[in-house]
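It would be a great kindness if you could assist me with a short task in structural biology. The matter concerns a single protein, recorded as an amino acid sequence and a row of backbone structure tokens. The record follows directly beneath this note:
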Amino acid sequence: LSPLTTPHPHQRTMRVNVSTGYRKVMSRMTSTSASASASSSSSPAALKSSLLRLVSAPSPPARADVVALVAELEAINPTDNPATKNDLLTADWSLLWTGAASAEEDELRRSKEGVGAIVSPSARVADEDADKEKNPLGRSLSTIDVNDGAGKPFAKTVANQQNIDAFNGVVSNEASISLFWNAVVLHVIIKGRCSQSDARPDTRLDVVFDDVSFKLGRDKESAANLVTVPLQWANGGRGPEGWVEVTYLDDTLRLGRGDKGSVFVTARRPAGSSK
């Protein structure tokens, strides 16, 4: 799905906050490959483990390293015609990293992105273009991390995810932001529709976003809805739209490339994990 952050003209990519649900995914996915030998370092399990460690490491990853691992996995995608596999696509997915393949492409990506990007995270990278001074509040709702003078979190993004119900053609992108020293949580939810693309029905999903909601409360399901804003005013009355090419898909990992030049790394959230 297209990233959901409306970028600042000087926006730089940042590291994604890793949710509790993802940590469970990470443990499950990496444990099976921990004993892999050096000769099997190019196996799907080893490549997945390397990619997940890279995007969740405390130090920011080099963009080129992330994109290279993504490309290796794309070359061995185990799922034919992934856009038709509703059973694999349908899930709650933690969005772990998104960015363009190069700094130049990132500039083009940011110039194209619009209202749909408000809640998807941008991944922190170790590139020389990661300029934090020009956009101080974390670039987007999905990467907020603001401390008070005592070093305590005043506002911090605690979860990012994409939810796909491919059977019913429904999607949503969500960010949850802890506010006022964890006193309350703001949930930002953009809902939309997805369908197989006429241009490439086997690998591509078309997406149209319908509205964005803001909810306040610790639990998303019982949170009070502050306001829901329709998005049909954008894009000539059609609403924000785009497409994503599903380039790798299995039962735990989904990779994709969007129409605005973004690369996506997402991991399936365990059933029953908190949202």
Observations:
- DSSP finds five helices and ten strands in the chain.
- Helices lie at 20-31, 44-56, 63-75, 86-89, 103-112.
- Confidence is low (pLDDT under 50) at residues 2-40, 115-123, 127-140.
- Strands lie at 91-99, 145-147, 153-165, 170-179, 184-196, 204-216, 224-230, 241-249, 253-258, 263-268.
